[in-house]
Amino acid sequence: MSLLADLARWNTSGTITDSQHDALAALVRKDRFSVFDELNALLYLGVLAFIAGAGWTIQTYSARLGDLAILFTLTVSFAGSLYYCFARGAPYSNSQQESPTLAFDYVLYLGCLLLGLELGFIEYRFRLLQDSWDHYLLLSALVYFVLAYRFDNRLVLSLALSTLAGWFGFRLFRLQWFSGSLRVDALIYSALVTASGVALHRATIKRHFLEAYLHVAVNVALAAAVAGVFERSASPLYFLLLVACGGASVVGGVRFSRFAFVAYGVIYGYIGISNLILRSVNDFTAVMAYIAISATVVIVLLVILARRFGRDA
Amino acid sequence: MRKYTDDEERRVRKRSRVREWVRSGLLSAPQVEGLDGELRVDLRRTNIYLRGTLAFFTMLIVVALVGFTVSAFGLHSDVAGATVAALAAILCITAAEAVVGEFRLYRFGVEEMLAACSVMLLSISASEFSHAATGNSTSEATVALLVAAAGGLGLYLRFGFVWAALGGMCCLAAIPFQFDQSPAAHRAWAAVLLGVVFAVTRVQRIRYEEEWPGDEYGVLQAAALGGVYLLLNVHVFWWDRYHWLLQQDVSSGGFYWLTWVLTWVLPAVGLVLGIREKDRPLLAVSVATAIVTLTTNKPYLGWERHTWDPILLGVVLMAVALGIRRWLSRGPDAARSGFTAARIVLRQDPVLSVLSAAPLPIQAHTHAAAPPAATGFDGGRSGGAGGGGSF
């Protein structure tokens, strides 16, 4: 039986009202078809293309355009986007707020990316901070955090978190990433992000941002711990850290029904523990046997978990 | 043929749709409680994270068991390896059948990975046997791709795995590239094959529309159109300077200009069909291919690319989005021909909640407070897109 027929039957039996039936039937028949997501995707791609082009143009033509013209244009654009947001945005609220217009979030995001571009250009041209150029990242991260909270913009919050990670020396493209102090930086970053997210959540300030904080923090912490376990000369504390963080992630994920965290804990934990166990095993057959047995154990445990927290179709 | 009955497949989708309506405030939870018995299905599912994790560990088990068997028994010859792979493929598909039959798993990860491994192992086995029999690397790859394409289709028909059909389509499109022909012939034959897939899936999509299995055919139809486009746009793989992917390529001649025309025609046709039928997958693919056409038009015509081209593209995309939004919201009831820029339903996609931590335009479902039970489409404020009018 089709969904339309079901709706008619539910309406006849009094399960749904006439107005509900009409509204839902219109959706099923596609008499009402939302392109909300598609328009958002177009705006996002538009912002990214614009920023990529602006960066490329500045890099190529900075000498011809002149420093002043570039700085003026970027500053005015950033100020313009801020003006738009302050003029159109609702007053600050600790709770989640709807964007006043479709373009609102993307104007702010564009402004923030332009600020990043401008700071990068200033350092590239004038080298004001020289070896301490990382502080540009800290400055922009702070600005992004303020704007993300002021305008309830998760895109900008993600930008703030990744920029802060950059300041902590967590640079993905560096060749020797996760070696030595970088790993410690990552753990400090993770702890700070977790603490900030939890503190703000407890203070009922933009509680809906917490999950974004935790996704970033848990992945960074577990990746750093796994990297520590992989490096034989590193402290054995990394293993304990991996077990503790992985366990906490699984337990927290189950408790709060956020199963992405269960997956993080299980996968990172399995990789780290397996590395430790297989470190001294050189026999390929034994390695295969270990993987087959251990993966089976994990599956059994996961199936038990899935049966408990899974859902009927 | 299908492991799940038609009734089960339909109920799964109805249940999912009803949950979506509850999240969106179009139905209330107590109302749905009354429908629970009617929509209940005797199938076990899990959330996407556990599903992915279970699939990952299932793959580890299969790989480790095959590796263990080969290593422990010293089966290193081609024929021995091919035999082990074939036996493992049979075991995998048998196990997939068993766990679905016995435990009534539905998109649980385990049965999906077992089925996928069976096709991959069968493909490897066929390829190894072919190599042992002919010593010809072309036939080896062709056989592997043929088996994988047929296997993907088989998994779709048996279990309804749309991802398997998509994988099969990719393998099918790769087959012409194994033969010693001109680059134009490679692309043309591959496009013809996917064109046939598009035609077949389109007939089914029109027949069933949104009702199952029409939703699956809708995805396959859109993917086939996207595949045809990618094969015919010779400037898409611009980074492939060493022709790793496409060996030699087409850079002039009648075929080259025909593909240029088609890079404009295909997105236009897709858009017209997508808008006329309000077909979301087709719309998405058509818009994406239209954007690719805009970015590859200059290299097609041999015009110089400028650093500000992306700026122009960005401005165009933003202007189009805002223009459409404005035009739709000024229509009667903030809609035109049924299209609206307002958000109506809150779709639940758990993957989005993970991606919401990345700088992507995704709102985790958990962010959104479901509006109160409504009598119609009163919303439209979410994201500010809507005109705010009631329906």
Explain the layout of strands and helices.
The complex is a heterodimer of chains A (313) and B (391).
Chain A (H helix, E strand, L loop, with lengths): L2 H10 L5 H11 L4 E2 L1 H30 L1 H22 L15 H23 L7 H18 L2 H14 L13 H22 L7 H21 L6 H19 L3 H20 L5 H26 L1 E2 L1
Chain B lengths: L5 H18 L5 H11 L4 E2 L2 H25 L5 H26 L6 H25 L2 H23 L2 H13 L8 H26 L5 H19 L21 H24 L2 H22 L7 H21 L5 E2 L2 E2 L9 H6 L36
Antiparallel strand pairs in B: 2-3
The main sheet of chain A comes to: none
For the biggest sheet of chain B, the summary is:
2 strands, antiparallel
Gross morphology of chain B: flat
Number of helices of chain A: 12
- Whole-number mean pLDDT of chain B: 87
Q: DSSP strand (E) fraction of chain B? A: under 5%
Order of helices and strands of chain A: HHEHHHHHHHHHHE
Q: Tell how many strands the DSSP assignment of chain A holds.
A: 2
Radius of gyration of chain A in whole Å, from Cα? 25 Å
> What is the oligomer described by this structure?
heterodimer
Cα separation of the termini of chain A: 18 Å
Integer average pLDDT of chain A: 90
Low-confidence stretches of chain A: none
Counting helices, strands and paired strands, the structural category of chain A is: mainly alpha
Q: Number of helix segments of chain B?
A: 13
Structural class of chain B: mainly alpha
Domain count of chain A: 3
Q: Give the fraction of residues assigned to helices of chain B.
A: 55-70%
From the spread of the alpha carbons, the general shape of chain A counts as flat
